[in-house]
Amino acid sequence: MSRFRRGHGILLWMLALLLSFAAAQQDGFVSIDCGATSNFTDTVSGIVWTTDEGFVGTGENKAVQASVNDNARQMKSLRFFSSDRSKHCYTLPAVYNSSYILRAMFLYSNFQAASDQYSFQVSIDSTLADTVNITSVEVDTPQVFEYVVVATSEYIDFCLLPVDGPPIISSLELRPLAPGMYDVVHDGIYLKNIIRLNCGTSGADPTVRYPDDPYDRLWITPGPTYTVTTAQTSIMILVPDNNFDKPPKLVMQTAWLGDLWWFTPVPQYELQKTGSYYTSLFFAEIQTVKASDIRAVKVEYNGIFWDDLNVTVSTNTLYQRDLIVDTQGVNFSMSALPFATLGPLLNAAEIYASRAAVVMRTDELDVAVLVSVKADLGLNSWAGDPCLPVPYSWVTCDNSSSPRVIKIKLSDLNLVGTMPESLGALTALTDLWLDNNQISGVIPDLSTLRLLKTLTDGNVNLCSATENCPVLAAPVPGGNNKSRGVSGAVIGGAVGGVVVVSLILGLFLCLHCRRRRRPPSVPAAMSETASSDVKGASYLAGGGGGAVAPSSRSGASTVGHVNQARGFSLAEVQHATNGYEKKIGQGGFGLVYYGKLPDGSEVAVKVNSEKSGQGTTEFINEVSLLSRVHHRSLVSLVGYCEESGQQILVYEYMSKGTLREHLYGKDMKGTLTWTERLNIAIDAAKGLEYLHNDCSPKIIHRDINSNNILLNGKLMSKVADFGISKLAPDGDDTNGVSTLVRGTTGYLDPEYYALSRLTQKSDVYSFGVVLLEIICGRAPNSILHAESLQYNLIEWARGQLLDNNLESIVDPVIKSGAYNMESLWKVAELAMGSLEPHGVNRPDMKQVGRGLTEALEFQLARSSAGDGGSDPYLRIDSSPNATESYPTLQSTVSSVPEHAGATGGCATLFTPSSTYLRLPSDTRGADPGRTYPTTR
Fold first, then answer.
1. 606 among annotated binding-site residues
2. I need a labelling partner for 150 at 20 to 30 A (CA). Which of 361, 441, 852, 904 fits?
3. What's the pTM?
4. What is the pLDDT of residue 327?
């Protein structure tokens, strides 16, 4: 069977671009015909292509002789940029915290005589994304780079960075995605498209894109070297609304049939960037089959079992978030399950490389000052972050986590304008070179620049505030500008209190007008009642300003610049929930109802109960905190309502409910495999790590439990319920913060309970209990119905582990599938280490997350022995006679032996004196050098 290679088909789909039904362009599309001199509308797709004007301030236009279809007019020109700048940036308008497809195309054609090879780099905001290499034999081959990104401000900067020769670009596109699509993407992760296949089509079939795909993804036809049986239908395939990545119906109407072997090479540079891939395979029945027929497909990649499913006329999707590949690429295989009467089928597929995005930004105040410097000195063609991923050619930055500008060198550039008053706010500045230009006006107060050591002269029309500044005609370019200089000593004390006030006002205006979105302010009605728990309006707004006045609606309040969280009226809430028709849960805050907003978005609506004991403080805390923290592993607040004495929170809807509902209890919504449990734990750990380490100020959740970890349709978890969260103390967390004891019984840190001192390690303890729940499938406190006796999960698990008897506590649901014993031991060790009586001996959440990732690697590890055999690491126990092990009511050891000090990491959580030490690998019959399979 021949293989489909990524290189095949790219030119074909470029030549057949845009062949679909005409339609009006969707809102939010940005389509730039780089290098063009006029706009045009594609008569086939309805997409409006515009020139570069307004998006970039540098570069020159060039028409080229591209051998492409007439409908691909945007490929017949390019824009090229000089090599004497560090970067050239397009600034694309976006909606904060929304996800987009960002696609750039490069076709060199006959731009100029190509050398054997030249290259340039591209960046997205602060992240260096890729290198574009062009060789003399590839000048007529379009290169396409496509990403899924989240907007971290109201703009996305796409920059070209010279390396070897002038950068060029042919077209640049931005396409908004629906909420929930590709939701692995957040401000720390972006995706690069590797391949997107419309299976079942042939070379004569056009590429599917907008309007057949409303998000304008390009679904390409497989290359001619891949031969397989195909089928198609005219029946409209159902794509359910809850299918997250929403494949277009036209793509789902064709499919590959029969046993499939599909090989996708991955370029070597991809492997150097990441070992993690986001993969979606789409399945839907397109043939007329008998009622008795069953199409059941088993899917493997690189010999590792992925999943199996029954194919129906409704679109089914397999998702893999952490597909790990080796240097050879990805080998997918699809075969029929033994009980199936029909062979396998595949309609479409997507593979993305998952990459880490740089979340650093240049210091906000420094950015605001440089905005004014560029405006006052005519440097507005410089766009993008001043320091990242490379600084402006005239700027030098330090290497801090939020880079500061330390040098500005603008000598001999014939600049015209004035020195902005805000320069005095660049407090890290050591060198300022503005000599030999035509800058005029008053020199601002620079006495605050205590590190400034170099300041040169040569601007004849500059003067200090103590001088009579001349009224100047427009400066003459090239004139003599070296006749008079101004010394640094004069500058240092030149300006009095009036200019200081002007400086402060100017900085506030700069910060108000700067393009990066500010964190939300506090509802006015809330700011008056904020307690010390929430530190007032400054904390609630992330330091970004005061309260906002209530709206004109009676009793309603609004949040200014809320990041996708807004004030709802009570009538809007009642309409969304259809009069609180469908109850979906209950928590400490009150009842939770299902709702749907006018735009179709599903939401969970929490209505405060008078009996909840949680009031205004918790309401303020949760609204304000979730309006300023954003992470894919934290539940998103859509909005809130405070009207007629009611307090209501509106969240994104997590369709699979709570983690607890998938582990135990009479209302279980489903079961979870060990791999799924590991992924859920990793997601939740990342959310907590973000709160502990990346928020400013840092946050302690204070109520981690399995009911506050929610699952979406892909079983991705998010941490919820922030009503009683607290700010962590600055610096060392050892001493914690004194506060009343709050939280959920069974999860409370004993050190916090005894001393009323809350620390980040209190969250770690609670998370350790959750890890035990994940392993055991049991509640923290429960009753053995056979004996009607209570037991404590921690003490029971501790006793069994002291006896080296891990299997006795493992949830029978886990035992019914495939699990890796090394992976289970790893998580058990993490759990018990997190449950150490003294917080100093517990790991932090970063260490816990790292340990969980290692456990997942054990679980996904491969072995040449594909069936597991007698492998003690891989245990498959589906025997109907398997009995459950019940807790030991009287443990011989009351607690884990205390450590002398904190451990150095998560890999070794117990001292040699601890009886938790496991038997060495060789005594269990396992080869220490082997890795083990996960085949069911």
1. yes
2. 852
3. 0.61
4. 62
